[in-house]
Amino acid sequence: MTLVDPLSSLARARASVLRTSTAERVADAVREEVVEGRLRPGARLPEQTLCDALGVSRNTVREALSQLVNERVLAREPNRGVFVAQPDAAAVRDVYRVRRLVETAAVREGEAWGPAAVARVRAAVDEGRAAARKADWDGVASANQHFHRALVAMGGSPRLDQQMKLLLAEMRLVFHRMSEVREFHEPYLDRNDTICVLLEAGERAAAADEVRRYLSDAESQILEAYARL
Questions:
Q1: What are phi and psi of 100, to 5 degrees?
Q2: How many domains, in total, are found in the chain?
Q3: Residue 72 is part of which domain span?
């Protein structure tokens, strides 16, 4: 694995990191690279390389990496360094357990629900379909992340939004282990649209029920794929 491509996008985050020069900002920048699929499972993250890319001190990078290790986005291997994590089946089950609680509640009862929130969901659906038309399946995966982030944003809670960032980072690492990327993601384009149509009609309870079924089906599909690895 190399960091050539991720480093170019990490460098774009340098300005925001330098505004605060905090480990939290560095952790956010690295985590976002994972969420967007530019940092993949098993990729090594050399401290000095990250320092150079983001323009921060080694101590700041170490603190950020330790935070991401605690979040299970990264893994530290003795005498080898820090690597992007490779979630196992137990992690998949736990992530989906949390997602069913958080996403369904945000859709059913979230206080930020309204036309603007639903429009963000629709934008993510349209983004996914546009990527599929170009056969950009990594783009479809990213749009799917944006879709689920928009669902949780209906909760109106910055704390939930932050928790969702952590969950989506783990999920993107899980998706990288799916050998048939198109076959996995393509059917969910229609399911995303179904949920969006229900929200546009104001049928929040029905949308929440569909989200729960959707997540349970996705979990089963992923665990079946893990069993074949």
A1: -60, -40
A2: 2
A3: 4-84
Is pTM beyond 0.85? Reply is no
The two beta strands, 74-77 and 81-84, are antiparallel
Residue 205 belongs to domain with CATH number:
1.20.120.530
DSSP 117: H
Q: Which of 52, 84, 116 is the last residue of a domain?
A: 84
User: Whats the size of the chain, residue-wise?
Assistant: 229
45 three-class SS: coil
Number of H helices, E strands in the chain: 11, 2
pLDDT tens column, 168-224: 888 888 887 776 778 888 899 999 999 999 999 999 999 999 999 999 999 999 999
CB count in 10 Å sphere of residue 229: 8
Per-residue H/E/C for 120-138: HHHHHHHHHHHHHHCCCHH
* Residue in this structure with the two tokens 């109106």, named with its chain if needed: 156
The CATH number of whichever domain residue 55 belongs to comes to 1.10.10.10
- The label of the residue with tokens 């198109």 reads 182
Quickly tell me which residue has 């076959």 as its tokens. Answer: 183
**Residues 73, 65: Cα–Cα separation, whole Å:** 9
β-strand partners of 81: 77
Q: Which residue has the tokens 């950009």?
A: 136
Query: How far is C-alpha 60 from the geometric centre of its chain's CA atoms?
Result: 23
